[in-house]
Amino acid sequence: MNPVEIIQGDGPIVLGMPHVGTFVPDEIRAHLNPRGQMLTDTDWHIERLYDGLLPGVSVVRATFHRYVIDANRPPSGESLYPGRNTTGLVPLTDFDGQPLWDTEPDAAEIDRRRAAFHAPYHRALQAELERVRARHGVAILYDCHSIRSHIPFLFEGKLPDFNVGTAHGTTCAPQIEAAVHDVVKAAEGYTSVLNGRFTGGWTTRHYGRPAEGFHAIQMELAQDTHLASEAPPFAYSPERAARLHPHLAEILARLADLAPSLRAGA
């Protein structure tokens, strides 16, 4: 299976989707324990949630599961959140801190997965961002994520509905951060935070280089905003998604409208 799927649009926005894939090669699945084989920590239905919200948007989507290797972690394996509970390049535990593997991958196996899955995804994402910037003079990466709203191993209490991450304002122009934050703050019936528990993963931090015309922002949605249940089978809720759609569509439309003013020399 191709590790990445690409939809090329003609607009300035690229949607990154590193955690929606559920493909696990048989030889890797055989080493997962029964808990790992449930693939609980998927960003369930994110590709469906964002489908059709912005004409001309590009999409770069990983097809492999994050338990194979996490496309939103540094290839070096260093922690995104030193001193805090998190998961690594190849997660050994799930988001509840429970083991995933009957046989954990060794360094050679991690290297193999890095070359076979992580690297192709990022080559594709880099190429798409460069294509978009060449066309528009700017590229805005909106990295799409979701997570269960209650995970005591990672954070206390209930996660806000909208979690916006810009690595504390370093990965995008302030106009982008403000536009997204303004929409989520005004979204009636929803909660939000800017650079809270999730400040942006490796994708956001790596590609967000505003001075070069590459802007990146991460959106981590609490899954109860669009799932019928945050437990198996993690069914999509069309009713909840329909309530969420106008806010997501407004975010993407505002970013597209901002893009021309962010071109070099604009």
TrEMBL record:
Alphabetical UniProt keywords: Hydrolase
Superkingdom: Bacteria
A Pfam family matched in the record: FGase
Keyword Thylakoid on entry: no
InterPro entries listed in its UniProt record: HutG_amidohyd, N-FG_amidohydro
GO molecular function: N-formylglutamate deformylase activity
Record-listed E.C. numbers: 3.5.1.68
Name of the protein: N-formylglutamate deformylase
Organism name: Paenirhodobacter populi
